[in-house]
Amino acid sequence: MGRSSSEKQPKKWDLYQNRSQMKWGVLAVAMVITIASIFYTNQIVKKLKEREAQLVELYAKSIEYAVNVGNRDEVLFLTQNIIVPNNSIPVILTDGVDKPLDFRNIDIDPKISPKQRQKKLRALVEEMKLQHEPIEIIFTDENGGVYDYNYVYYKNSFLLDQLTYYPIVQLSVIAFFIFLAFYAYSNSKAVEQNRVWIGLAKETAHQLGTPLSSLVAWIEYLKMDEDFNYPEVLEELEKDTHRLETITNRFSSIGSIPTLEDENLYEVIRSNVDYLSKRISTKVKISIATNSQVVIAPINRALFDWVIENLCKNAVDAMKGTGNIDINLVEGPEGGVVIDIRDTGGGIPKDKLKKIFIPGYSTKKRGWGLGLTLTKRIVENYHNGKIFVKSSNPTEGTVFRILLPGKDYLLDAEEADLLISGKTASA
Ligand SMILES: Nc1ncnc2c1ncn2[C@@H]1O[C@H](COP(=O)(O)OP(=O)(O)OP(=O)(O)O)[C@@H](O)[C@H]1O
Ligand SMILES: [Mg+2]
């Protein structure tokens, strides 16, 4: 029963450990791929940028050379059409005061007026200024004296722009699809698990049903038999069949959509405590505190009994048969209900807190690790409530907290704390 037995059950464990290790592995690989692909395209972008800058520089130099040397048209034709054919980088040639003189690779409607065109080009020059330093063209006379300046403004080609954003778009699209696939996968797994739960529960209830009704009939028969003189045997038999009926009822409830009925939770908990007290060690004292003897909530009695039983049995196990279980029941101002179940056991180690609700997690020799899974399912899926470990440590024990909704209202953990500490109990 002790925690030391955890080492004896590596099989159940490994399943979960491996799964989470795999998750981290996949995440790490995805990160590496992302970083590598961004780094790689960045390199390409950088190279392309350098090339484009060189091309524009050459374009500027060819103009400068053509004007300074003299046979302008020939040189321009040679450089711009044969040596450096630029048909992708948008460039604007301006005079010394940024007035556009010529342009290339810029989409301008030929039908607009020259004035409008000039305006557009000027706006573009402003835009280009932000991207790159312009390239200066210096005009000199035969003696080397400078008599004028021109500037070549340019911006990234469409290709370069696309390449800059491409990896981001690509990776986002891939990430989106991976997320979608993962979501669909885990959803279909949950659906499958649900089917197993429900199918198994229904089948169990069904199979127990037949011998049970026959047992009940036999008991009735023995009661009428005057030769059968063992009333105490009959009493025990009746108790056991009643217990079997309870179990069958639980399985059949969890295997269908259970009906919820308004019940007084205080009474429900009290009768569970009465039942359990007789069956556990006398060294365990169970007490109930409440802010009202009448706390009505819609529950499924058969399933809710199971919840209380599971939590109390776990508490008894954690205390190794000696200690106190304190149940605190509080009704919120708008009907939400808080139930705290506190034990004085050995607590749950912090790193195990996330695991206790996973099916198959148990530290007990004879545990199936299903008690809390079932409890969570009953509270959250069937009652729309919440269950969590409120606190746990080796010296003070553990507090499990259940929140049940009132009329369209579910307390949150913080409200529940205030309520339990009595600060808003009168509100
Ligand atoms: N009150 C508690 N104090 C300390 N540890 C607890 C407490 N409740 C649960 N645990 C831990 O959580 C584990 C899982 O509990 P759960 O009820 O799901 O399974 P189990 O009790 O081991 O087996 P069973 O299926 O028979 O209930 C326990 O084995 C125990 O280690
Ligand atoms: Mg248990």
Automatic annotation (TrEMBL):
Protein name, entry field: histidine kinase
TM helices/strands, residue ranges: 22-41, 163-185
Record field: catalytic activity: ATP + protein L-histidine = ADP + protein N-phospho-L-histidine
Gene expressing this chain: porY
Pfam families registered for this protein in UniProt: HATPase_c
Positions of the Histidine kinase domain: 203-408
Record SMART domains: HATPase_c
Keywords for this protein: Kinase, Membrane, Phosphoprotein, Transferase, Transmembrane, Transmembrane helix
Top-level EC class: transferase
One function term, GO molecular function aspect: phosphorelay sensor kinase activity
Species assigned in the record: Persicobacter diffluens
EC nos: 2.7.13.3
CDD domains given in the database record: HisKA
